[in-house]
Design brief:
Oligomer: single chain
CATH topology of the largest domain: Rossmann fold
InterPro entries: THDP-binding, Thiamin_PyroP_enz_TPP-bd_dom, TPP_enz, TPP_enzyme_TPP-bd
Radius of gyration: 24 Å
Number of domains: 3
Number of strands: 18
CATH architecture of the largest domain: 3-Layer(aba) Sandwich
Protein name: Putative acetolactate synthase large subunit IlvX
Shape: globular
CATH superfamily of the largest domain: Thiamin diphosphate (ThDP)-binding fold, Pyr/PP domains
Strand order of the largest sheet: 9-14-13-15-16-18-17
CATH class of the largest domain: Alpha Beta
Structural class: alpha/beta
GO molecular function, one term: thiamine pyrophosphate binding
Number of helices: 20
Keywords: Thiamine pyrophosphate, Transferase
EC number: 2.2.1.6
Largest sheet: 7 strands, mixed
Helix content: 25-40%
Strand content: 15-25%
């Protein structure tokens, strides 16, 4: 006789059978049957977060490193709303995620109870796929569809909404995951057009994103550049990059508009390998939105959802570049910084301190902008960035990455303003004993916004305006905040202490926090 199970258990079994075996949760009443099902189903690791933005950000970090989706478990519309900022970031990063949101029972929604809201409408701008299960018999099938949808290239947020009665009523048993299509390969026309642009004799750039930024893709780009004389770069922000010894040195398009325009000056051709046309992060008075020259011709080698690495292999073969000699990075870290803590001294220390096979999560914002060049010759590592621009991703992203890769050290480079958005992630790191070393760059202000005041041409700025960008009165104490959530740490005021503290954090199991005071 087949054992009966409710909708929640059928969903959990479907997720586990489909390879989704980690769930970052902040559940409520409507999700209790899902929670109860965890004790009846082997194979699902459920991790509690104290804020939904930590759950969604951690699911993002997990998927970037595990290369498969995790799930979230959120409570009704307000719980989803709390997690939307990092769902936005995940969507921009094309992260595969199964985002499960509980709702009132179907028959209760008509009564407009306090937590009633239009969850589908709220979820749609931040998801690539949204569905509400109508009854318990459909839950497993809808869950299987969500798992498949999340992994549709290049990856997307799949939001499944579960009314309470679909969880507690009798379900159908687990469902099989639909076949996930393989990435499409580019056309011969795209390859030949790209080859023509790169061999035109005019200044050309091969602009990379996505899988092109792993070691093999970077090597192919370097061979193509060496053969044709073109330049190759990465877009400004990237979900994941292979860096350090054994990889290929690559620059990114700078964030500041003026620097970006200067970098791309004179280009006649830009070939897009998974990347988008380069545009400014914001609009500024009397500055262009498009960062390249107006007469630049764009050629698409591959869209992000296509097989970018195969496209680069085909392009290299078309150009006769498959054996063109290139030089990979050698391990040659800079000498650690000394003296006063600042961007110029922090950059070489980070390069010297990154351990082998590390995962670096970069939300250093203004302080961390110059770290990239000084870390290129460090130990081999992976670099994760904020793709959507909504701050507060760093700590959750590091949390999820550490869950995905428990044997790899995670170094989270974090601005103090950004840290306060999702600092609850420290509690989850402590509870799960995750190997995350968090460095807070404490300049006690939203430093990047001070620069933006000038960039947007804001005039006659006085005390009231400056107070909106200031994080003092009272001063934050991140060491005390971390200790209150079970994470040990220390405050440092010079580079010698900084170097020792980071080395200690990276070599000690479990989470650790360093608050680096910047004048």
């Amino acid at each position: 006789m087949t054992e009966t199970m409710n909708g929640a258990e059928s969903l959990v079994r479907t997720l586990v059978d489909g390879g989704v075996n980690v769930s970052f949760t902040n559940p409520g009443t409507s999700e209790m049957h899902f929670v109860a099902a965890l004790d009846r189903v082997e194979g699902m690791r459920c991790i509690l977060t104290l804020f939904e933005g930590v759950a969604t950000g951690a699911a993002d970090g997990y998927a970037r490193m595990a290369e498969k989706p995790a799930s979230t478990l959120l409570h009704l519309g307000p719980g989803l709303a709390n997690g939307l900022a990092n769902l936005h970031n995940a969507k921009k990063a094309s992260t595969p995620m199964v985002n499960i949101v509980g709702d009132h029972a179907t028959y209760h929604r008509d009564y407009d109870a306090p937590l009633t809201s239009d969850i589908e409408t709220a979820a749609k701008p931040f998801s690539g796929w949204v569905r509400t299960s109508p009854n318990a018999k459909r839950v497993a099938e809808d869950g299987a569809a969500a798992v498949a949808a999340a992994q549709n290239a290049p990856g997307q947020v799949a939001t499944l909404i579960l009314p309470g009665d679909t969880a507690w009523d009798e379900g159908s048993g687990p469902a099989k995951i639909p076949e996930i299509p393989t990435r499409k390969r580019v056309s011969e026309e795209a390859v030949r057009a790209s080859a023509k642009a790169l061999t035109s004799g005019e200044p050309a750039l091969l602009l990379l994103a996505g899988a092109a930024l792993k070691v093999h893709g970077l090597e192919l780009a370097a061979r193509i550049a060496a053969k044709t004389g073109c330049r190759f770069m990465a877009q400004t922000f990237n979900a994941r990059m292979d860096r350090g010894a054994g990889s290929i040195a690559i620059e990114r398009i700078p964030y500041p508009v003026d620097q970006a325009v200067e970098t791309l000056k004179g280009l006649k051709h830009i070939v897009l390998a998974g990347s988008r046309v380069p545009v400014g992060f914001f609009a500024y008075p009397n500055k262009p939105s498009l960062l390249s020259p107006k007469d630049t011709e764009f050629t698409k080698l591959a869209e992000l959802e296509e097989d970018i690495v195969h496209a680069l292999e085909w392009l290299a073969d078309e150009l006769g570049a498959t054996k063109t000699p290139i030089t990979n990075n050698q391990y040659a870290p800079p000498k650690a910084g000394t003296g006063k803590i600042g961007a110029a001294t922090l950059a070489p220390s980070i390069g010297a301190l990154i351990p082998e096979n590390a995962i670096v999560v970069d939300e250093g914002v203004s302080t961390g902008r110059g770290f990239f060049p000084m870390t290129q010759s460090a130990h081999p590592h992976v670099w994760l960035q904020n793709m959507g621009g909504s701050i507060g991703i760093g700590m959750p992203l590091a949390t999820g990455a550490a869950v995905a890769c428990p044997d790899r050290p995670v170094l989270n480079l974090e601005g103090d303003g950004s840290a306060m958005y999702t600092i609850q992630a420290l509690w989850t790191q402590a509870r799960e004993q995750l190997n995350v070393t968090t460095v807070i760059f404490a300049n006690r202000k939203y430093a990047i916004l001070l620069g933006e005041l000038v960039n947007v041409g804001a005039q006659n700025v006085g005390r009231k305006a400056l107070d909106m960008l200031d994080l003092s009165r009272p001063d934050l104490n991140f060491v005390d905040l971390a200790r209150g959530m079970g994470v040990p740490g220390e405050r440092v005021t010079d580079m010698e202490s900084f170097n020792k503290a980071v080395a200690h954090g990276l070599s000690t199991p479990g989470p650790y926090l360093i608050e680096a005071m910047i004048d």
